[in-house]
Each structure stands twice: as C-alpha cells, then as structure tokens.
Amino acid sequence: MNFQRIYKPILGLFGLGLLLASCEDIIEVDLDSIPPKMVIEGSINDLESQVRIKLSTTTDYFKPGETPPVSDASVTITDEQGTTTTFEETAPGFFLSNPFQVMENTTYTLEVMAGDEYYEAECTMPERVDIDSMSFEPAPIYMDFAENAFQVSCHFEDPEEIDNYYRVKAYVKGDELSGDRSKVVFNDDFVEGNVISIPWDLEGFMALDTVVMELQTLDRASYDYYRTLFPILNGGMGSPNPTDPETNLSNDALGYFGASTISRDTIVIQAK
C-alpha cells in the first residue's frame, strides 16, 4: 500500500458560486508538504522458514505510485529466548532473513536501524486452528456469479477460552496470487468455542476446479492492521476522514510486523 495522508480542500457553496461566475480565474491551493515516514511491512508464519521485510518511505501526494526504498538498514528478529536472526538486503528496500523455525506462543521482536532512526515491533505467534473440512454447493442465485458456478465453504472449530483472530482466503490451485486480494478478517467474539462455517462469497468456482481455502490464525497486531486497512482500500479517495491503519511499530512508522499460523485444505468441485 502506498501510505500517504490525503489532504482534500473543501469547496463550499459560496466558493462554488464564485468559481462559476469567474471561470477564467486561477485558483491556487497551497498543499503543505509533510516529512516522509518510514514504512515497514513484514510478517512471520509457521510455513515459511525465511522472513521478508520491506522498507520504504511515504511519498508526496503529487507522486502516487512511487515508494522510495530504504537501503543499507540493519534488520533483525529476536525471540523471547534471546536468539537473534539477521537479514540480508537482496534488492533495494527488500530484506531476507536467514532460515529459522518459529514457535507457537512465542514473542518475536523486530528491530530496524535505518540511518540514525530506530524502529521496533513485537508480535506473538498464535496457536494454529486447522480447517476440519470443506464443502461446495451451487452458488445462490442472488450472487452475481457465472452461470453454473459453485460456492465453496470451509469448516473449523474455534478453540474455547482463547481470543482468536482470522483471515480467510480462497483461490483456484495454481492462482495463489488471487487469494492475496482477500479482505475477509474476523474475530471470535460471538462464536468462541463453536463450529464455524465460512462460505466464500467473493467469487464462484466452476466444475472441476481444485479450490484451496486458507485459514490464517492471526496475532492481534495483524488483525488490527487488516481491520483498519481494508476499509481504507475499499473507500479509496472518496472515503471520509482518511487515516493510517493501526500499527504496532514504534517511532511513528507505518505498516506492521505480524504473525500468523496457516491451515490449508483443498476440494475438487464435482458437478452435481
């Protein structure tokens, strides 16, 4: 995401009248520049042995799409036992860790030193919640899917007496990148300890598709970040009072450092 604060001048009815009466006048709006902020993006999970961290800075309002990378930084992750993993810069602004094994219920601290600025964030690897099964059925007629499309669901049991936060993805096997567009996040406030069924209603699937569903159990920092990020993405430029997503990073940085455990299951759709 290109983090930047959006400043929008408000044109009142009186100003609008003046504009219509004198269309040849030049109206100059002075938009003050703001200092760039550090953006740190990265997460750890229980399926990958290496972690990727992206460092960049915010951009000018008039230069959307540009995300200046931050290079020559020191990046480390340290677990609660004091074991430190170092990173190597593989491309401008992209840092890759040495392989290491993450553990559930363990807290990890990310430390970034960029120039004279120090940034820190903590996350705790949650316990994994597994998908128990998947199912499919003809897509409801009120959904704007292709003709003869199917809707896929995953089913799992939420653990009792644990605050859990989830993100769900679904995609056709071989098209994993499409799953990254998922904005389905929720917590277990009203379903704790119950069997949960999640129907995927963002797209329909066709007969013979091999569909993958992914259940991510998130730490609280990841959940808060996604929960506040997705409404901004959905609202775009027209959203009222745009702001930055919640972050667990120090020193006024943007982005997040999160943790998740991942359960995946697949089903092949057989036409009924």
What can you tell me about this protein's structure?
With 272 residues, the protein is mainly beta. The protein has an eleven-stranded mixed beta sheet. A three-stranded antiparallel beta sheet has the order 8-9-12, with no helix packed on it. The radius of gyration is 22 Å and the shape is globular.
Summarize this structure briefly.
The protein has about 270 residues and is mostly beta strands. The chain contains three helices and 14 strands. Strand 4 and strand 5 form a beta hairpin.
Could you list some keywords that capture this structure?
3 helices, 272 residues, eleven-stranded mixed β-sheet, mainly beta
H and E order: HEEEEEEEEEEHEEEHE
Largest sheet strand order = 7-6-3-4-5-2-1-14-13-10-11
Unreliable runs, pLDDT <50, ≥5 residues?
Answer: 2-31, 236-241
The biggest beta sheet is recorded as: 11 strands, mixed
Structural class: mainly beta
Strands, total number:
14
Radius of gyration: 22 Å
The amount of beta strand, in percent, is 35-45%
**Average pLDDT figure:** 84
Instruction: Report the total helices.
Output: 3
Overall shape: it is globular
The portion of residues assigned to helices is: 10-25%
User: Kindly, what is the distance between the CA atoms of the first and last residues, rounded to a whole number of angstroms?
Assistant: 41 Å
